[in-house]
Amino acid sequence: MIKKITLTLTLLFTFVLTAQSLKSPAEFLGYEIGTQFSRHADVVRYFEYVAQNSDWVTYQEYGKTNERRPLTYAVVTTPENLANLETIRTNQLKNVGIVSGDSTPDKAIVWLSYNVHGNEASSTEASMATLYELITTKKDWLKNTVVIIDPCVNPDGRDRYANWYNQVKATPHDKSQDAAEHHEPWPGGRPNHYLFDLNRDWAWATQIETQQRLKVYNKWMPHVHVDFHEQGINEPYYFAPAAEPFHEIITDWQSEFQNAIGKNNAKYFDEKGWLFFTKERFDLLYPSYGDTYPMYMGAIGMTFEQAGHGRAGLGINTDEGFELTLVDRVAHHKTTGLSTIEVASKNIDRLNTEYKKYFQNSDLKYKSYVLKGNPDKLAALAELLDKHEIKYGYADNGKASGFSYAKNDSGSMEYEHAMVVSTNQPKGKMVKVLFEPNAKLNTPITYDITAWSLPEAYGLETVATTSLVTANATNQTPVYNNVADSNSAGYITKWDSMKDAEFLAELLNNDIKVRFTEKPFKNAGVDYGRGSLIITKSDNRKLEGFDNTVIQIANKHNRKLATAASSFATSGPDFGSPDIKLINKQRVALLKGDQVSSLSYGATWFFFEQQLKYPVTSINTDYFDRINLDDYDVIIMPSGYYNGYLNNKLSDKIKSWVQSGGKLIAIGNAVSAFAGKDGFGLSKNEDASAKKDKDSTNVEEKLIPYASREEESVKDFITGSIFKTKVDSTNPMAFGYEDTYYSLKLGDDSFSLIDNGYNVAYIGETPENVSGFAGADAKAGLKNSLVFGEARLGSGSIIYMVDDPLFRSFWQNGKLFVVNSVFFVNNNKFRL
To answer: Other C-beta atoms within 10 Å of 65: how many?
Structure first.
């Protein structure tokens, strides 16, 4: 009894001391929170100060951004809990079977993530206010709750926004919507350094911020995760419960707890007279968000959206006639953050009980996903699964029966070596979400794409089985090549994966001349397909240390080289044939700036710089019309809005450059800018719904009620659906592919097949979407439509990629089309 009294008095003394001596954010920074935008470095300084001066907080760095800013998180709880933190953490993992052993956890773990979108900047300010209030006035909640605060998920984007705003704002701030401080320049502060939307990267983990955060997230596996955002200036505040559609694996409990938190938030908002809305817009389907990803990992994941966004600044007049201030926005986010912690702290037992139930996966229909195909593609998938700490194994010599992805129906698949990913593991529900053939939809009106199946994204033949397939863990054996005999002709290697492309890029960067074959051949009795790389001693005879350099690069990339004793082919072309062509060290330009989608530019820039590791020159649209195009072999136009930009003068300049041998690659919406223009060889298919309207006099359709129009309009939509396409695998753009490719189609744009050129990937007479939603009219409009193609213009080419294979960088199987387009397509002249 004496010990309990002593502990109580000690804690009481600590509470009083903390409240009296610890500086508030305003006292530390020198301004009231909400009256300035804090730089990331100042936020870090405040969190460090609190951790150094309070035994209720620890603070540490978990990584760095591309621009070298620290990624950090604070752990906030009682001193007693902090002393026992490792036990609390491991008990959480034991409770769901991630770590072996028994546990009876008695704490809730709440993770608050702020500022994933850099120009939604109020939430980082709120993180400081929330931290201070937690350890001064709300400390009772921390007795049974551990709160993790990531004050800024996207420091590069936030500083881009905050620094810009601090430079241009008026003093005092100008609340007129017309003021310059409410109009960000391209690309805005929303994305990270590579202009990726980090709130769409949770599942794909392409970005350094996501990869480092997931390592910490997987160590904690919180019960509750809140992602703080901002939306348009005229929408007051959104919080859970979320809108439909819900993914089918989301439990009733998760939905109920969202509702409980929403009601608690509503109580505080009603007391203050603050408006809000729930159950609209923000659904729980696409797995790569900061609310859905935690949901599929068993947590209560939620998005909270405050009015403001990059337009609001320190204050702006809304359309409803009042000023929305940063002070208000911070107060709202602080309130919902604290409210969430309060609800969690009052439901400890239920949280732990229901959380444990979520990880029991015996009722899932498919027990194993069996995948076979290119070893490099399997390795790439394994790399993704490792980031999420999802278990997998391999099986040899067997047959899998169940749902065949190739048939989009029941079927079987024989294999000699296959990857097996099973659902009898703690993260089995996330396995289902990522691998399922087709997510169930109770409404097609969603916030994002409706298909993302990893077997199609990685180009792997797959069967989902209703019985468990036994697998063992094995590692890929490293390749070791030796220098060829001095009398040999050179080296040959295959071409069918991005790993081969990375190998080629490094060879070219080291000034090694490489050839590729447009026709299959046989050398020393071994068959080599189209696109195979040939590295000859003849081409590189003046290069000192040629053999050692090639071998070193091949071993680094784990590429198996075959030594060619002679360039004489057993069958097919010899090394000196015109069908075996030298690959140019291409000079690639990439458009950026106004008219260009920042996300598409960022994905393309990231692809070249971080994945292919091949140089690309970014050129701004402001001065693109003044550069000498002859300095470049390839120009890439990312998805964008070029119709008003490509005037006659600029179009003629591009056309002249292409005719002289240039290669233009138009991606996504950029394709539309050339449709119907003279000389560019592209036209749109007639819009199916427009044709129907023209031909129909159906009165009923004209009298659809206002409230039903949105639902009726989905017939014209394609919301991120996977379509089966036919491929001309003999075309250099398709080297490394077979005759079928699954393409992620983001919209209903439909272009006619090319007359003067090559239709490399296309949708035929009967469009077939294998996953995701496609409205009947939109689907019909894709009949005989182009996906990837090349139009010849003079001695050059325009390459049209109607579907963006680099979208969010997760459609792994599409990336080789881009590489082929740069290096192989229309390769008729080697530049000396």
So the answer is: 22
